[in-house]
Specification:
Layout: H1 3-38, H2 43-47, H3 53-70, H4 81-93, E1 110-113, E2 133-143, E3 148-157, E4 168-170, E5 178-180, E6 184-186, H5 196-209, E7 213-215, H6 223-226, E8 231-236, H7 252-259, E9 264-270, E10 281-282, H8 289-295, E11 303-304, H9 315-329, E12 333-337, H10 346-355, E13 361-365, H11 376-381, H12 386-399, E14 407-411, H13 417-426, E15 430-433, H14 435-440, H15 463-466, H16 471-495, E16 509-512, E17 518-520, H17 521-524
Parallel strand pairs: 6-15, 7-8, 8-9, 9-12, 12-13, 13-14, 14-15
Antiparallel strand pairs: 1-16, 2-3, 4-5, 10-11, 16-17
Helix pairs in contact: 4-16, 5-16, 10-12, 13-16
Length: 531
Amino acid sequence: MNPVDVQTLALFLLLLVVLAMFSGPPVVLAYLYWRDRSQSQHAVLRNFPILGRLRYLFEHIGPELRQYLFESDRAGAPYSRDEYQQMVFAAKYLKTLISFGSKRDFQQPGWYLRNELLPTLMEDMEVVREPTLETRRYVIDDEGLFRRREHVEEQAVLPWTLPDEHAVQVGADLPQPWTLRGLVGMSAMSYGALGSHAVRALSEGLSLATGSWLNTGEGGLSPHHLVGGADVVFQIGPGLFGVRTENGRFCWDAFRSRAETPEVRGFELKLHQGAKIRGGHVEGIKVTPEIAQIRGVPVGKPIDSPNRFPELDSVDAVFDHVARMREAGGKPVGLKVVVGGPGWADPLAEAMARRGDGPDWLTVDGGEGGSGATFQEMADSMGLPVQAAIVEIDDALRRVGVRKRVKIFASGKLSAADRVALALCLGADAVNVARGLMIAVGCIQAQKCHTNQCPVGVATTDPDLMKALVVDEKKHRVCNYVIALRAGLTSLAAAAGLKSPTQFARRHAIYRDAFGRSRSAEALFPYPEAS
């Protein structure tokens, strides 16, 4: 080709590019203007074409802007920036240290823990210290405005578990009782609500920590729950996933098969959940072939459990079913409940005393508990918060003289050692943690759990998104988080003059009201006399 022709062609192409640059945006804007004015769905766009789109942009990115730029460290929900960072630092760096002092507003009413004049020496605390556990933690080398340089190091840590004299026995009269060597375990989170990488990291991490357990949630038992070898609580919801016949009835053969699994230490009938007094819900986009096979449901279809076990229409029917489960499986059986108000637990406790049987434990889920998918009207108003609920259950069991036999597990934002200690003071024997462990494996509170678009691969079954979660790295964070909770709990018990966290009682919880008056939980809620 003639050099002149090449030059002419180049100039022509350059002219086309320049024309596109200058004429393209007006054409696009004109099209958007026409489209916004002619559509009938959005009133703002009809009156303010193009400019109205900024409203939807800011609505979309508003949560991120508030979380990272505008909210104070103590604001934000479900967890504030401070609370979130405390969980991240415990899991990643195995540290709970802060500088300069608390950010708590001490003028506001709230709960405090009673310290003793002469605390117990840490070396005198009755906890298991050997053998040490091997984990990994990050160490910050250098931190600048746009980067953080850090390295991973092996770390030997104390387990902070319970010796025989303080271990919690669940179902002591059964052929296969469950012994708790720690007071912190994983709350119910189903495979399906969480992805396989998250479940595996939790299973392996809790196993590394020893003395802990994980609850399957109502989605059934998967191979991912068993990979680490940690103790497992098999939860059964009204959908009967994992123990159902083809026509949706309870399958006793399937139940006995699950009971033969060594890692399964007990079963839990889910009557309620704090975030929703209704059946569970999973969006169809999260129902993979594996999840469908485990649950016995169609692939890709939304899953909605009934809001109650249809056949369990009375307290006696519930207890009959529990008795049969205990006999068939030989392992402890618990109930998960949400307390509705004063006197709510009395029929449950009275039936235990009258019949002489019933569940081995009650999991008390507070109304502030979380969920991968619920409805606003349920999440905000239904059910008592966990602190009030613990006292109601504890008192009801004490009044009829069955408290020693029935253990209380508490759940509902108990993600820090002081919150765990307060729950133990008010009457809990152990606690379950869900969102704290989610944050340990990488959750950033994007609140996309129900969409299957979790950006960090935790609450999604999308294989591409799950790749972000590296099990071998996150399992150590899970272990570190649990160890940090147990170490903090032991430290608080020592400050209270106790030898073990199992000795916390109501007199150790102090409530300061708006007028500055302080009273112990024992004074506010005296222990009832057994009838």
